[in-house]
Design a protein that fits this description.
Rossmann fold, 44% helix, 368 residues, alpha/beta, single chain
Length: 368
């Protein structure tokens, strides 16, 4: 097999998907070095920087270098002047990255041959019929939910709409989470439960305590910063696992809430959940369940009845301080659901709408 000293791939990667991964993997296997150039424009609502970051994460520690290049030039494959404009954008993107000679251009498109000729390089066609991976950026943009598993995992983590519910003990957080999950599961069959891991951890910790002392009661548990480190880390993992499977995540708490419960149980000087908090995934909206007007229900595992109002205020303060978008959901269950679904529907519509310039072409797969 020929091993080209310097291979190049160009594309929009809007968004990057399994077909792109196959193209890059194939080209990387046939190149000593491979440059993947992301050419995006201002009319697309995923930034070039995000696409570069996702591809770089997907191909970490390989011979692949991902380069971003804003390119607002119109497309016209029949115009020599437009071809030159695109060629120059690509040439400069490569030049400032230290690449002055291209040996092979890899693509799945017919225009790859002409582009390669402009650079005095060989054109290597990869899966032109899209039989290996019958997916395209057009299909992903048309129906993000149906195409979700075809989008590379780093992109899924950022593209997923994340709705996080938080609140003090016995303020209806789990009740509202369950209702929202039931409401949206018809549209999102792959919607994954993201429960409060701290509750399961408490069950397990108490069971271990009872195994040592059958007379132990809940108030005997001694909490440590390590406990909250484990809880926060696992809460992040559960949320990210859900995002990998579905473009909508509805989580019953998160690692930010873990940090506040750590404050409640241990005090201001404990920072076990700090690392998890620094790795908090992106958020679209926090919904804080109001304690006002909600009776405290002691299910045998709750100990903070008299600090509910204080904790509710903590959530408001910390989310505001961190710059997160949050809504206090209050009133009866019907009002809370109405508030939640109205904003969630608007966020979904905004986050799943892909914009393109008027000259953008659509990829139509064979048999489609």
């Amino acid at each position: 097999m020929t091993l080209y000293p310097q291979g190049v791939i160009i594309g929009k990667f809007y968004p990057p998907h399994a077909g792109h991964r196959h193209l890059i993997t194939t080209a990387a296997a046939q190149s000593q070095k491979l440059a993947v150039v992301v050419l995006g424009n201002r009319f697309e609502n995923i930034t070039v920087a995000d696409r570069v970051r996702w591809l770089a994460a997907e191909f970490d520690e390989t011979n692949v270098t991902v380069i971003g290049m804003p390119n607002d030039c119109p497309e016209d494959y029949h115009s020599a002047a437009i071809w030159k404009a695109h060629d120059e954008a690509l040439r400069l993107a490569l030049k400032v990255s230290g690449i002055t000679k291209v040996d092979a251009v890899f693509s799945s498109e017919e225009y790859g041959a002409e582009l390669a000729a402009h650079f005095g390089a060989v054109h290597v066609m990869v899966d032109h019929a899209r039989t290996a991976y019958p997916v395209s950026g057009t299909l992903c943009r048309d129906d993000l939910t149906a195409a979700w598993r075809n989008i590379i995992k780093p992109a899924r983590q950022d593209l997923a709409v994340r709705v996080i519910l938080v609140g003090a003990e016995s303020t209806g957080t789990s009740t509202l989470t369950t209702a929202l999950m039931e409401h949206y599961r018809g549209r999102y069959p792959e919607l994954v439960d993201v429960p409060e891991y701290g509750r399961q951890y408490t069950y397990d910790k108490f069971a271990a305590a009872r195994a040592e002392n059958p007379d132990a009661v809940l108030s005997d548990l001694v909490w440590t910063s390590e406990d909250f480190s484990i809880i926060g880390e696992r809460q992040n993992e559960m949320e990210n696992e859900a995002a990998a499977r579905c473009p909508l995540v509805i989580a019953d708490t998160d690692s930010l809430a873990t940090s506040l419960f750590e404050r409640l149980y241990i005090g201001e000087g404990s920072y076990g959940s700090y690392l998890a908090l620094t790795q908090l995934p992106h958020r679209d909206i926090y919904l804080i369940t109001d304690d006002d007007g909600v009776d405290f229900e002691d299910d045998g595992w709750r100990e903070a009845e008299h600090r509910r109002a204080e904790m509710t205020e903590w959530f408001k303060e910390e989310l505001t301080r961190a710059g997160h978008s949050w809504i206090l959901v209050t009133g009866d269950q019907e009002r809370r659901m109405a508030t939640a679904t109205e904003i969630i529907d608007l966020i979904i519509a905004q986050r799943t709408r892909f914009t393109s310039p008027p000259w953008a072409t659509r990829t139509v797969l064979a048999g489609a």
